[in-house]
Design goal:
globular; about 35% helix; Rossmann fold; pyruvate-formate lyase- activating enzyme; alpha/beta
């Protein structure tokens, strides 16, 4: 690849989306990768264009751009179930490379493991280290040596590169920007959990509060209103005290306060959420952790989730994989977060709840492991506690992490979905709960799917066709296994369609027909004459005329 000697270079940043344990990039999220890369290209004095795989698909999978260099972002390390968009597949990546008439670089978590087919590696340069730093060096001096970005670069590039977000198909709404607070793990000395790459970064590198806020101010100036403080292994450990001296260093509430108060003072936002939290840190430092949880409740928006990396309740698996917390510590953390954040917030969801991650395929696993996992969840249920979501996934299958107990893993997953998830949803969002600002994303057949913007939002299902790409308030009318049945709130009886009327609890097909035949209604007395006093008493709470 001949990079040296170019005075003016056009770089296309092609976002194939990433999905990592601490960093989301599948829409409606935009990850840090394209913004940092855009900042690096602009800092080197060159032109940058940002495109997404969604836009490419909508254009018939034809690459019209003719850049000098294309950087493809790819890597779903922890793939999930997606509603509207999917990360780029290997087949699509191969097709894209075949269309490119320029040098192609590949960035993202795929660079951290040998997961790309040889035919793709033969046609592209796989970037290592920090891809933004490497691209900057390529453009500046033709150097391809992998390195980390400097602290100054980490300060400047996110701000300079923020503008690429305006070219995302979800801009300005419902786009949510991932914003890093730090990288690395406080357990780096022991190597951390057996499956995790974060300890490989070495001693954690924290971003300064002012640098984080400056990035968010610029994104907000462009029009982005939704943010998630992600990327970190534990939000409660931001600028923690005693790194390297303990596996569970003491949190610093003052550092978190300075960050959150600064964001609230200087950044315009509709949504402000966090991500991961280490349950052992919370359990071992309950005073400081309680203070931080209360700061999150006060300064962030409701519906927030602190994802706890439990992975397993089996002591043998915990020891074999150097996992970060015992079941007792996780339960303590769940209790603390419930005390601080269970109250319902302004969008109808509890202010702050824990999430739980379980991982199958870890060394030491037996059939008994999954029974212990299930009994832990039963204990959570029996105590009346709330957990926003239970993520059950398999470790990337390798010789190191084979899923030997396949039947036990899938049986555990089935039991959780059938016996835990639905009663937990009923606890989190009782019938008639009103959830505000749900964005309608997709219609399939006679159903319409929407979600509130934020961390791990609930899937909300309208049982009728509805106009997409808009915000609505909804009321909970029923439950699926991992979703809520909802109806728009309020419903106008005079202009609602038959499918909407039939979805109102207590109405049904016959009464919906009666309403349609007798409207328009000028007052509730007229409705009462048609439907009766008892029905109207219920309708008045959630309907208008």
């Amino acid at each position: 690849m001949g990079f040296e000697g170019w005075r003016s270079v056009k770089v296309c940043i092609f976002d194939g989306y990433v999905d990592e344990p601490g960093l989301l990039g599948v829409p409606p999220y935009i990850s840090t990768y394209p913004r940092y890369l855009s900042g690096a290209v602009r800092a080197a004095g060159h032109e940058v264009e940002y495109r997404t795989v969604t836009q490419w698909r909508k254009e018939g999978k034809q690459l019209d751009a003719r850049p000098d260099i294309m950087v493809v972002i790819t890597g779903a390390v922890v793939p999930g179930k997606y509603l509207r968009d999917m990360p780029i597949s290997m087949k699509e990546l191969s097709m894209l490379l075949g269309q490119a008439r320029c040098d192609v670089l590949i960035a993202g978590p795929h660079t951290n493991k040998d997961s790309l087919p040889n035919d793709i590696k033969d046609r592209a340069l796989v970037l290592e280290g920090d891809p933004d730093a490497q691209v900057f060096d390529i453009l500046e001096k033709g150097s391809m040596a992998p390195r980390k970005r400097t602290k100054e670069e980490w300060k400047v590039w996110p701000v300079v590169g923020a503008e690429c977000a305006a070219n995302h198909q979800d801009f300005p709404q419902p786009l949510i920007a991932e914003v890093e607070t730090y990288r690395g793990c406080v357990r780096y000395k022991s190597g951390g959990c057996s499956f995790c790459m974060e300890p490989a970064h070495g001693r954690p590198e924290f971003r300064e509060q002012d640098d984080i806020i400056s990035e968010m101010v610029e994104l907000s100036r462009l029009g982005i209103r939704n943010f998630r403080l992600g990327g970190q292994t534990c939000f409660f450990s931001y600028k923690t005290q005693g790194i390297g001296e303990s596996e569970t260093p003491k949190p610093d509430p003052n550092a978190v306060r300075q960050l959150l108060v600064g964001i609230n003072t200087k950044v315009e936002f509709d949504v402000l959420h966090i991500d991961n939290a280490n349950p052992a840190v919370i359990a071992e430092h309950p005073g400081e952790s309680k203070e931080i949880a209360e700061l999150v409740v006060k300064h962030c928006t409701s519906g927030n989730v602190a994802a706890l990396g439990m992975e397993s309740a089996d002591p043998v698996v915990i020891e074999s994989n150097n996992l970060n917390a015992t079941p007792e510590q996780v339960l303590t953390a769940i209790r603390l977060l419930n005390r601080a954040g269970a109250a319902r917030g302004e969008n109808g969801m509890p202010a702050l709840l824990p999430g739980l991650n379980f991982l199958g395929g870890l060394p030491g696993e037996t059939k008994r492991t999954f029974e212990m996992n299930f009994q832990f969840l039963k204990e959570v249920m029996d105590e009346g506690l709330m957990v926003r979501r239970i993520n059950i996934r398999q470790a990337a299958p390798t010789d190191k992490f084979p899923l030997k107990e396949r039947r036990g893993f899938y049986n555990f997953k089935r039991r959780v979905r059938e016996e835990i998830d639905k009663p937990m949803l009923e606890r989190i969002a009782p019938l008639d709960t009103v959830l505000t600002r749900a964005f309608i994303e997709l219609r399939i057949g006679k159903s319409t799917y929407c979600r509130q913007v934020g961390s791990y939002p609930l899937l909300l299902v309208l049982p009728y066709p509805a106009e997409q790409d808009r915000y609505v308030d909804v009321r909970v009318t029923g439950y699926g296994q991992r979703s809520l049945r909802v109806i728009e709130e309020p419903v106008n009886l005079n202009n609602a369609g038959m499918s909407v009327l039939q979805a109102i609890p207590g109405i049904g097909k016959k009464r919906a027909g009666t309403i349609a035949l007798n409207r328009p209604f000028s007052n509730w007395t007229e409705v009462e004459k048609v439907l009766g006093e008892d029905i109207v008493r219920e309708l008045k709470e959630h309907c208008t005329l």
